[in-house]
Amino acid sequence: MGGKSKPSNNEMVEFEKQQAAEARQKEAERQARLEQGKSSIDAIFAGGGFDQPFYDKYKNAALGYQLPQLQDQYTKQKEQTTFDLARAGLLRSTAAGQAQADIESQKAAQEAAIRAGADQQVADLRKNVSGQQSAALSQLYATEDPNVAANTAIQSVQQAQLSTPNLQPLGELFKPLVIGGIAAGGGAYNQNVANTLYPKRPNYGGSYSDVA
Question: 74-83, 131-140, 143-152, 176-185: which range is least confident on average?
């Protein structure tokens, strides 16, 4: 019976070589596309202006919005405290120095918190930019299309360039100091303080004595 002849060993070897060569060619072309796409994405983000001055500008925008608010509240708190101390007759007292020191301490703590918050916003922005670049690279490897990935990178860069810090008005930063009315009663106040510090108790002898 006649039939198709089987390929010879040499023909099989040549066929396998051809298949392997085609596979290597396809892989080389694939790697070239990926390399082209990666280079494009890296160049797009590198040219996006995400350098230290960019992040400094972002940070300063946050500080420039919040620090003046802190200064305004600080000034008002000092003025109010000075007024309350003067009204209570304690302007030159130890209590006045303690009150002013407390205000300075509160200001330092609040300023440190504001600066830390601005630093955190910058860190979040850096992370976002890096994440967008990684997303563009992931799209490149998924689609193996450098043009699509490059367009995604361009859009991400443009969006990141428009980023602005979260500018929220600050609430009341300074805890009120209870000063008003301290010396309103003059001697009465001093007696009240004395009674508080040195309460009287019965001596069971029909009279009361101060406890030293």
Answer: 176-185
